[in-house]
Amino acid sequence: MSEEHTFPSQSGKERLIKAIQIKYLLLGLSLSVLIIFSFFFGAFADRVFVLKPLDFLTGKRQLTLNPGPNQNLTGNSSLSIDVATVAEKASESVVTVSVKKQQRVLDPVTSGIFGFALGMPTGEIKEVQQDIGTGFVVSQDGLIVTNKHVVEDSEAQFLVIDKNDKEYQVVNIYRDPVNDLAIIKIEAANLAPLALGNSDKIRVGESVIAIGTALGEFRHTVTTGVISGLGRGVQAVGGQGGTIESLDNVIQTDAAINPGNSGGPLLNSNGQVIGVNAAISANAENIGFAIPINIVATSIDNFNQTGQFDRAFFGVKYQMISQQAALVNEVPEGAYILEVVVDSSAESIGLQPGDILTKFDGEDIKADANLAQMINQRKIGQEVKIEYWSNGEKKEAQIRLQGGK
């Protein structure tokens, strides 16, 4: 039997070719529509929802900055730190503190064959105004936070100057007897207070921004850096009077802080105040210190309730002993007493320099604890139990906290 082969006709071949062409045309159109849709949808999602569909589908991930625990971000895992925006907004609430004082004038006197001009005191006294520090607004009705050492001269006249160079007379000053803090009052309304953050939640390495009147000359100077350390203890020398302040549990930063920055805000990337710039290291560069804002918040709450810094006072100057130092020296971890204030609560129970406080009202005193804050949280007249180590013996005592000195 012979095999019979059937071939498509000429018209059948043309129909087959057209079907194949149509198939590939439709496939091409589908791919084009998909590409165009992906492009516009991806751009829209990136702009509106901060989503990147193509990166997600291809497994790509964008490196983002992990936000700090006190940064309130909703539905956004990435953080863009716009220093210029933060600084511009915060600067509306940052002020320069200026002092007016009487100063003897130097009269240029020409003498000698070479005609050198020598400055000689003439006896004439003029009023001189000088920028000496920084502050920031904490209430709409004119309360401003700064450092106590900035306004420690009780005989001087102080002014506050805002970003627009408008001057305000300081009508009252409330100085904190315990911390290097002060609240100054000006006659003003509808001011823009800075938002306060939570200094208990900050971490080493977080970005920070400092604003202040650098060197008492350059107003609203903005510097940036990171939190370099926490829980530091330093001795700070005051500006006008030169008094020494012991600052405990302060924030260390490498953001440039200069004389004149004192009292200015240390901000996180959300523009919240996490510290009050207070001191710099005289022995190194890029080492500045700020008082944690939670201590300031406690002072402000206390002030709002009483109208003054009326707080409990224990009466010791101390230095923290770390666990490692305690093990090496075979002493307990705690607060090593350097000095006991006369007529204080501490003196009333016989505490002496060289004693080591180990517990305060049931709380362990360790290197990462803040004894000053423990005291600040108590009220005047409150009785607390303390435990301390003296001459190799563990001792206990009940004391009644006195008012601030």
Report a brief summary of the structure.
This protein is α+β, with helices and mostly antiparallel strands. It contains seven helices and 20 strands.
Describe this structure in words.
It contains seven helices and 20 strands. With 405 residues, the chain is of the alpha+beta class. Residues 1-7, 43-80, 111-117 and 238-243 have low confidence and may be disordered. The protein folds into three domains: 16-57, no CATH class; 96-306, Thrombin, subunit H (Beta Barrel); 312-403, Roll (Pdz3 Domain), CATH 2.30.42. The protein is extended. β5 and β6 (182-186) form a beta hairpin. The strands form four sheets. It has a six-stranded antiparallel beta barrel with strand order 1-2-3-6-5-4. Strands 7-8-9-12-11-10 form a six-stranded antiparallel β-barrel. Strands 14, 15, 16, 17, 18 and 19 form a six-stranded antiparallel β-sheet that branches.
> Residue-averaged pLDDT, rounded?
76
CATH structural architecture of the largest domain: Beta Barrel
Instruction: Supply the helix-strand structural class.
Output: alpha+beta
Tell me the radius of gyration.
33 Å
Figure out the total of helices.
7
The tally of structural domains comes to 3
What are the main properties of this structure?
405 residues; Thrombin, subunit H; six-stranded antiparallel β-barrel; extended
